From TrEMBL:
HAMAP family: NAD_Glyc3P_dehydrog
Top EC class of this enzyme: oxidoreductase
Gene assigned in the entry: gpsA
Binding site for substrate: 103, 251-252
Name of the protein this chain belongs to: Glycerol-3-phosphate dehydrogenase [NAD(P)+]
């Protein structure tokens, strides 16, 4: 199958390697000519060190590479997903399947990324979200990894499952696109918070509490927006939350650590040097929660630290001294 991967960051490159290994004819598209030239010259991506790029991987910065492709993978940061989809829309083959592998919510519209893509490419192109606990660095090293392929279109979800699946990269299928995409986007906010707590010197208790209560509020919003509660207990929910909150590969967590150690937010985001999706997702999640009238205290606290410069110590104190609650919303009814 001829496949284009749009976005040559760490994730696009790692997925291009999985597809190449599975015998597909893969082109990796870079946003700039310079980025593509570096890849061509070094045959290695600075965002994915130690993974040689074979000659049979085509490298380009010409968006025309999507022509004749049955599958087009969109692997840019979330802020660039719509513009990238718009630029390739007139070039797509009829029926080409689009696969969104970015994790975020569109800032201006609060749409999921597959919804933003659908607006740009119109009818006739099935759209799939591929997500789960998966660091590019580990997929690049062929560490066993398991993700989920979600689409309202069962045939497309299963086609993407088959295309990516191999003995080191297992893919489940799901029809809950909203649940999968929201889990992926919102856990980045919790990972930033986990990093902040690590940076402040808190321990495992705090992080476990943050992850558990974080997942509760993610699921609360996800269900209000049409996702299935069980999805948040799956790979793209708790699975991705665990990997992002506990690993040093997670740039969201690393950014949080810097903030917890006292680095101003903007400087911390810049120091990471790659997209910190949780920073953007905190603002959109807060807006979505307000719109859906859903309580998300941790996300709200993250917003206050990231956008209003509030001291994390004060925020933690406020979270810890909220009114007493029942753990399960429906207990003793
Ligand atoms: N890195 C991972 O382990 C991983 C895993 C799963 C999902 N993701 C998601 O994949 C997406 C991309 O992450 P990444 O790690 O590859 O990012 P990255 O920071 O490594 O690379 C970002 C890429 O986007 C390109 N880009 C920047 N501005 C652009 C624009 N305006 N239009 C088009 N392209 C532009 C850059 O040139 C660069 O190639 C993110 O949403 C991320 O959350 C990443």
């Amino acid at each position: 199958m001829k496949i284009a991967v749009m976005g040559s960051g760490g994730w696009g490159t790692a997925l291009a390697m999985v597809l190449l290994e599975n015998g597909h004819d893969v082109t990796l598209w870079s946003y700039t000519q310079e980025e593509s030239a570096v890849l061509r010259e070094k045959r290695e991506n600075p965002m994915l060190k130690g993974v040689p790029l074979p000659e049979k991987l085509h490298l380009t910065w010409d968006a025309g590479c999507v022509r004749d492709c049955g599958i087009v993978v969109l692997a840019t940061p979330s802020f660039a997903v719509r513009t990238t989809a718009r630029s390739i829309a007139p070039l797509l083959d009829p029926g080409a399947v689009l696969v969104s592998v970015s994790k975020g919510i569109e800032k201006d519209t609060s749409l999921t990324l597959t919804a933003a893509i659908a607006e740009e490419v119109g009818e006739g192109h099935p759209i799939v979200a591929l997500s789960g606990p998966s660091h590019a660095e580990e997929v690049g090293r062929q560490v066993p990894t398991v993700v989920v392929s979600a689409s309202r279109d069962r045939a497309a979800a299963e086609q993407v499952q088959d295309l990516f699946m191999n003995e080191r990269f297992r893919v489940y299928a799901s029809d809950d696109v909203v649940g999968v995409e929201l889990g992926a986007a919102l856990k980045n906010v919790i990972a930033l918070c986990a990093g902040i707590c690590d940076g402040m010197g808190f321990g495992d208790n705090t992080k476990a509490a943050l992850m558990t209560r974080g997942l509760t509020e993610i699921a609360r919003l996800g269900v209000a927006m049409g996702g299935r509660r069980e999805t948040f207990a799956g790979l793209s929910g708790v699975g991705d939350l665990i990997v992002t909150c506990t690993s040093m590969h997670s740039r969201n967590r690393r950014c949080g650590i810097l903030i917890g150690q006292g680095t101003p937010t903007r400087q911390a985001v810049q120091e990471i040097g790659a997209v910190v999706e949780g920073y953007y997702a905190a603002a959109t999640a807060k807006a979505l929660a307000e719109k859906a009238q859903v309580e998300m205290p941790i996300t709200e606290a993250a917003y206050q630290v990231l956008y209003q410069g509030k001291d994390p110590h004060a925020v933690i104190h406020e979270l810890m001294t909220r009114d007493r609650k029942h753990e399960l919303e429906d207990s003793w009814v």
